[in-house]
Amino acid sequence: MEIKGYWLASGILGVTASVLRRVHESGADVVVTKSIGPVPRVGHPGPICTSSHGGLINAVGLTNPGIDAFLDELHRLGEWGVPFVLSVFGRSPQEAASVASRGVEAKPLAIELNLSCPHAEIGQVAHDPDLTFQYVRAVKDAVDCPVFAKLTPNASDITSVGRAAERAGADAVVAINTVRAMRIDIVQRRPILGNLVGGLSGPPVFPIAVRAVYDLYASLSVPIIGVGGVTTWQDAVEMHLAGASAIEIGTGVLSGLDVFSRVREGVMTYVQETGFSDIADIVGLAQRR
Amino acid sequence: MDIELSTGRPRSVAISRVVRENIRDVTLFFRRQPDSPTAAPGQFFMVWVPDVDEIPLSASWSDDEHIGLTVRPVGEATQRLVRMRPGDYIGIRGPFGRSFSVTGDAAIVVGGGVGMAPLRPLVYALLASLKQVTVLIAARTRDELLFHDEMLRIAESDSRLRTQVATDDGSLGFHGLATDCLTALLEQQTADVIYACGPERMMYEVYRIALRHEIPIQLSLERYMKCGCGLCGSCALDPTGHLVCLDGPVFTGSTLASIVEFGKYSRDATGARIDEIR
Ligand SMILES: Cc1cc2nc3c(=O)[nH]c(=O)nc-3n(C[C@H](O)[C@H](O)[C@H](O)COP(=O)(O)OP(=O)(O)OC[C@H]3O[C@@H](n4cnc5c(N)ncnc54)[C@H](O)[C@@H]3O)c2cc1C
Ligand SMILES: Cc1cc2nc3c(=O)[nH]c(=O)nc-3n(C[C@H](O)[C@H](O)[C@H](O)COP(=O)(O)O)c2cc1C
Ligand code: FES
Predict the structure, then answer these.
(1) CB-closest option in B48, B89, B267 to A46
(2) Which of A198, A270, B36, B175, CA to CA, is 20 to 30 A from A236?
(3) CATH code for the domain in which residue A164 is found
(4) Where is A135: in which H helix or E strand?
């Protein structure tokens, strides 16, 4: 598949075919599903989200119906012709590989491997290059379609994790997942989220995502899919300049489902007005010194 | 983009008053902070029950000073809520969702069980804009009728309001289902709008009755809600992807005509389809 355009990020609205089709029809070039595991999972008790300093903190906890039930939704996406990427997770490389190999039956454009949910016990893989290598290799061996590795900004060295993913055969890396965070209610004097800890997303994480994409672009040769805090075309241009070939938008859907087309149009205008012929021409341009 | 606003300005409030409505249901009131909006009829809040969960509850009262939530205990969160006392804290986000819109000149309002909660403020809003209102309150038994005494009291001094009761066991009023009572009612009088909230089986039947009589309808739907604000997708409807939290919970009959799952199935907390409706 071509890695370009403005996609729906995993976990935002992505639990049914119906709503994913609606997001695609509202302008998302590709939709990434909620991360799916081997069995049904309720996730964390509420509150599962709260706001903070212009951003969002969530602790959904990988709620999903399991791959068997989700296959019905995936087949429907296929029938409707919605371009989709299947996000998967697993407690071991083998488990992630088996979810992915069940999922490719529905012909996703690619598998996005969630190695990085900061508030689930099973999602901390992308802190460790060796573990990341094993997960990516296991999933690559199990499927024929492209595999993307989704990284965490919470790792102390995101580029060595990215390099491990590339060595294992990842066709692209996705950066970033949410940033580990917490809010405490000062009236009740207790953490707000049911899981206590969650992940920060939205505008406050944008510069963290830009830094991660910039560093990864400098040290990898596979494409980078940038995600984190993008809500305007200016953000998207900046993310492309850092090195993102495609951009995912999650929290930004709170500003309306037309966010994808607004961002796309703004970037196209920027590209034309600054004398470039294609968005691809600005990818990684900020790397020159 | 204002995420604070989109997520319903999360805040904690102290319960100011507790009112027992019948043998099951309890209304909790809290003070509205001056900077937060009042709730329109049909809008709901996400209510954080400390140590348990966060659940959607409709506003059953909203004025300049107070907001009320009427709770039916059915599980851990709601059981904890009905045991709360003045001074206890809950977390609040909202109000969320689209409200009922006040239209027509003669309305029938059908409330089944705790479905009367969002309909109480609607009845007040209808009367405030000079409508004829017939409210049909249904419950399994007379001890579970919600806001019946209150509606009778209003009707005593305001002839525009008529009340009807249906109980499954015949302990008061019409002996049978709300929908059979509605059918009988529509033989005696007509209406130019029907509003309903209650078990989905009931609402689906009310919807079909309204279709037969060609009366416009507004229904308040329930689906599993985790975020309440258009992020998680757990409340999405097939096949259109309408979100109950953002595009509802109040839907018109013409929107419901395109919702294949209405009256047929819903989804559980994991997002899996369950062939049951409440
Ligand atoms: C828009 C809306 C408005 C509502 N208004 C009221 C109201 O005014 N008064 C009232 O008593 N009830 C109302 N409900 C229903 C109320 O949210 C559930 O009864 C409550 O969530 C049950 O939680 P529990 O922990 O007590 O029970 P549980 O044992 O967790 O569940 C009991 C039942 O409630 C359902 N439920 C549980 N959690 C949720 C959730 N997060 N979202 C939706 N359904 C859930 C379950 O599917 C199950 O069928 C409303 C629901 C919605 C969607
Ligand atoms: C409510 C919510 C649920 C999420 N669920 C997932 C998930 O299941 N899998 C995943 O890889 N990322 C998940 N994420 C992370 C997002 O895909 C994205 O990486 C992150 O939110 C940063 O992008 P944003 O600022 O555009 O939202 C979730 C984010 C949010 C806000
Ligand atoms: S409850 Fe999360 S999208 Fe409606």
Answers:
(1) B48
(2) A198
(3) 3.20.20.70
(4) helix A129-142
